[in-house]
Write a structure and sequence with these properties.
This protein has five helices and 17 strands. By secondary structure, it is of the alpha+beta class. The strands form two sheets. Strands 1, 2, 3, 4, 5, 6, 7, 8 and 9 form a nine-stranded antiparallel sheet that branches. Strands 10, 11, 12, 13, 14, 15, 16 and 17 form an eight-stranded antiparallel sheet that branches. Helix 2 packs antiparallel against helix 5 and helix 3 packs antiparallel against helix 5. The protein is elongated.
Length: 403
């Protein structure tokens, strides 16, 4: 900065006239007050600013000439009595300046070892009076409007001013929030489409079906007989296995139980049917080699299923003694049955209608998480938009002053 036109003046501070020299920079619009009193010495820089949403004139008061270079010892930094102060305060409304005892002049005390502390109360009161006197004098400068316009032009010419960087940061934040909203909103639209879709025409199941399975003992293809029962509301089928191999009992087969998609894919197999009270398993849980089994298996990629793979189906245990291992032969037979029934559901001629029925039954539950997420993200979006608008208003105000 290059300050010009020095003017000697007397600033009324604490019932005393403190000698000072006032200068200004016609390029930046800043004014410097160099005080040389007995109790207060140093520089105070007055920087005109524009506050969004306000037509009034505002200034920021910086303590010292070079706040970005605090070390080494600086003679320009103000000293009030023996306390060296650093920082700045503002924006201050020039034409509505608070009384001295109400003006909050922020600042820090620079200790002798260079560390920073809170300005002592008496020093703070004295600092507030100095700031008040400096701003009051600045308000009466004959070139005040010229300084304001110069400050605005200078701010417009700075490519990396803090206000612009802050706005760009908020704009990036806003883009990030909207990117988070997008998948939730897409899911909500998909769920609404499922909810509004016509009720699916569900199949009429035969009284009995024959399902191919892979015999785990000799690797040959066997025939499993089962009685299918449609659970129309859930889009699932309960198979009561009655013959073929060593498996007997009920299996409830449907789409992926944990899918968050509007139209659930995958396939899941639940051992048994209706849940029993107090965690006692499910009705008619299957029995293999005399061992009653409990649990469920879920597969997200139904197309990867084959009669032989996956070799071992997980998530299944003894119904009465979950800590005891299942014999290898029993595990092999339950695995082959689960695979066969999952493939039968996957390859059913009306599987799309079954998946739509399952999707309709889950709409209300699946809406909860994205709705809550969108509500919170919309709140964050609104707050970020307000910050962007405030930044743009400030830049527009500077631009109008420059013009």
């Amino acid at each position: 900065m290059s300050f010009h036109s020095p003017t000697e003046l007397q600033l009324p501070i604490r019932d005393a006239a403190v000698p000072a020299v006032g200068t200004f920079d016609r390029f930046t619009g800043q004014a410097r007050y160099q005080l040389a009193g007995d109790e207060v010495r140093g520089s105070f820089i007055v920087v005109p600013e524009t506050v969004p949403g306000s037509d009034g004139c505002h200034v920021r008061v910086v303590y010292g000439d070079h706040p970005a270079q605090p070390q080494p010892e600086r003679t320009d930094e103000p000293r009030i009595r023996r306390t060296r102060v650093r920082g700045e305060c503002g924006p201050l409304a020039v034409d509505a300046l608070p009384e001295r005892h109400h003006l909050h002049a922020r600042g820090e005390w620079v200790r002798s070892d260079g560390t920073l502390g809170t300005v002592p109360r008496s020093t703070h009161r004295h600092l507030a009076e100095v700031v008040h006197a400096v701003v009051t004098h600045w308000a009466t400068r004959p070139n005040r409007e010229g300084l304001i316009r110069a400050a605005a032009r200078h701010a417009q010419q700075q490519p990396d001013i803090p206000a612009q960087a802050a706005r760009e940061a908020v704009e990036r934040e806003l883009d990030g929030i909207r990117a988070q909203i997008a998948p939730h909103w897409t899911l909500l639209q998909q769920l609404e489409a499922v909810a509004q879709a016509d009720a699916p025409r569900l199949p009429v199941l035969p009284r009995g079906v024959h399902i191919d399975y892979l015999d785990p003992v000799n690797g040959t293809t066997g025939i499993m007989t089962a009685l299918p029962r449609l659970n129309a509301h859930e889009g699932t089928v309960t198979y009561t296995v009655t013959g073929g191999g060593r498996v007997r009992g009920d299996f409830t087969v449907g789409p992926d139980r944990y899918s968050r998609d509007a139209l659930p894919g995958g396939v899941s197999v639940q051992l048994g049917t209706t849940p029993l009270p107090e965690g006692a398993g499910r009705e008619n849980e299957p029995v293999v080699n005399g061992i009653r089994l409990r649990g469920s298996w879920n597969c997200t990629d139904a197309h990867a299923l084959t009669p032989a793979l996956p070799e071992v189906v997980t998530g299944i245990q003894r119904a009465g003694a979950p800590d005891r291992p299942i014999p290898a032969s029993t595990a092999a037979w339950i695995s082959t049955a689960v695979r066969a029934l999952a493939i039968a559901y996957r390859d059913h001629g009306n599987v799309d209608a079954l998946r739509l029925a399952a999707g309709k039954s889950r709409v209300d539950q699946l809406r909860q998480v994205p709705v809550q997420a969108v509500v919170e993200l919309r709140r964050q979006e609104s707050a970020a938009e307000a910050r962007v608008t405030a930044s743009l208003e400030a830049e527009a105000a500077f631009a109008s002053l420059s013009a």
